[in-house]
Amino acid sequence: MRPMTLMERGGSLPTVSFPRCSRSETLPSKASARSIEDYAEEIVASGFPALRTLTSEARAFALDGCY
Fold it and tell me: What's the confidence (pLDDT) of residue 66?
């Protein structure tokens, strides 16, 4: 199982188009609406659906392999 992407988690809209990248088109630069703290929280929150609903303590316990 692979973790969900930010878009699948409902927290982000895609801003890069793979077809446009593969055609080497110049892509518009766009600043993210997320802060570095938001990204850090998403990293530690895990992209696995079952873990996202746990408290931070229970999630850490599960991610350490004790779930």
Answer: 67
